[in-house]
Amino acid sequence: MTTPPGDLLPATRRALLHRIAVAQAEGRTPSLVAAVVRDGRAVWHGSRTSVDGHGPDENVQYRIGSITKTFTAVLVLRLRDEGLLALGDRLEKHLPGTAAGEATIAELLAHTSGLAAETPGPWWERTPGSLRPELSDVLGEHPLLHPSGRRFHYSNPGYTLLGALVEKLRDAAWEDVLRREVLDPLGLTRTTTRPQTPHAGGWAVHPWADVMLPEPLEDLGRMAPAGQLWSTTGDLANFAAFLIKGDDRVLSAESLREMRTPAAPSEAADVASGYAYCLGLEIRQHGGRTFIGHSGSLPGFLAFLTVSVEDDLAAIVLTNCTSGPLLFTVAADLVRIVAEAEPRIPEPWRPMTEADVVSLELAGQWYWGTHAFALRLTADGLLSLEPLSGNGRRSRFRANGDGTWTGLEGYYAGELLRAVRRPDGTVDHLDLGSFVFTRQPYDEGAAVPGGVDPDGWRGTGTV
After folding, report:
1. Beta-carbon contacts of residue 301 (< 8 Å; ≥ 6 apart)
2. Sheet of 31-38, strands arranged across
3. Torsion sign, CA atoms 226, 227, 231, 232
């Protein structure tokens, strides 16, 4: 292991090492490297290898496959934030002439464009990218298998189109844009499109015998934005920290929250398993935690990066085998081990530096019909609506500066909250997307749609 002393307790470090040792042994993989990120920095690196002597460390490159898609998605969101495109735009508007021009940018990001999962043959992961020099070669004659926007269907060609979109709007090669706009600002000096020493070789392990076969290392050409990158646990630890906190030089925390929001209709089996796809990121539920990240695989390599935003923890696991251990389970276990052994210490509570009088006036108990809610003013300046029963719709609201607030999540995401006042300036009720919230259940003194029975509340004897 190469962990600096003092970052984690010895017992925690041993538990982490034990977990990856079991994964490497039972998964029969030539080598496995892993890292854990906490509070924005790597606090542990570990590795196991079948080769005697010096094992791989956080500077050894592995191929990361489809984790590349998350990098491509960041580039597309940057274009959106600069106003060069909208996620609802049809691809044809910016990249005319493809056979998938009716798909929107958001549909391509979320794998709901209806495109096929793979290119026409031969098997693109094991053949040179020079066999597919044009987008038409990647898409084939019949690229659409489903109506756009109707279902989640993972598509590697879809991310090839997004890479071509980046090239068109930036007038530069995808890998040059990636280096300039993401890799260099985040200090990812060991993330490259082609392997650089030291790097692992890719292997296939025989399923019924303890023998191995080297896998070819092909340049993917046009398919690069879908899976070309090589990286290290050291670099991916920095990238994971960025995915949690954001970095205004690359992408804001608000845009990253959008990337982490489910954007694709899930199959019934995905709903049952707790899986959903966002904008270049996957969400998985495991052990009571929500994990957001991406998997990656190419012949000879498996990779996984996942973050638990609530725990402010992330884990990266990389191997050099075509099939082997279930890396999401390993990564989730690494997060769980640290979260349970060394739980996050919350920041001290501090009062607001300056109370907003208008927001403070609205704080307290409200009723939607007979459902009781609390509206709280939090130190970050947001209004938080919470059901007092513990069950029901909840959301935080951001002030718009004009006496209204916009919902940030859940049922009320994007909905407008405003205080409706009487002629004397006092608050009559809250209007939340046309729903009326009053200070008392069906407050007879408030403007409740449909009115309130003049005989008021009653018992069974008066019915």
Report:
1. 62, 63, 64, 65, 200, 202, 318, 319, 320, 321, 322
2. 41-49, 31-38, 313-319, 301-308, 289-298, 282-286, 275-277
3. positive
Residues 6+ apart with CB under 8 A from 63: 195, 202, 217, 229, 230, 296, 298, 300, 301, 303
Sequence-distant (6+) residues with CB within 8 A of 21 are 48
Is the bond preceding 122 in cis, omega lying within 30 degrees of 0? yes
DSSP for 292-338?
EEEEEEETTEEEEEEEETTTTEEEEEEESBSS-S-HHHHHHHHHHHH
Judge whether 230 and 195 are in contact, CB under 8 Å.
yes
C-alpha–C-alpha distance, residues 270 and 281, integer Å? 15
Per-residue b or e along 423-453, where b marks 16 or more CB atoms closer than 10 Å to that residue's CB: eeeeebbbbbeeebbbeeebbeebebeeebe
Q: CA-based Rg of the chain, rounded to a whole angstrom?
A: 26
Phi, psi dihedral angles at 86 (to 5 degrees): -120, 150
In the block, which residue shows the tokens 């890719």? 202
Question: Of 239, 293, 55, 76, which Cα lies nearest the Cα of 170?
Answer: 76
CB of 215 within 8 A of CB of 322?
yes
The CA distance from 36 to 315, in Å, is 5
Write out pLDDT tens, residues 423-452.
999 999 999 999 999 999 999 889 999 999
Q: Which residues pair with 386 in a beta bridge?
A: 374
Residue 375 forms beta bridges with which residues?
364, 385
Q: Which two tokens stand for residue 407?
A: 């919902």
pLDDT per residue as tens digits for the range 341-387: 999 888 898 888 887 888 889 999 999 999 999 999 998 889 999 99
157 in Cβ contact with 119 (< 8 Å): yes
Cα–Cα distance, 344 to 244 (Å, whole number): 15
Which residues, in sequence order, are CB contacts of 311 under 8 Å at separation 6+?
A: 289, 335, 338, 339, 344
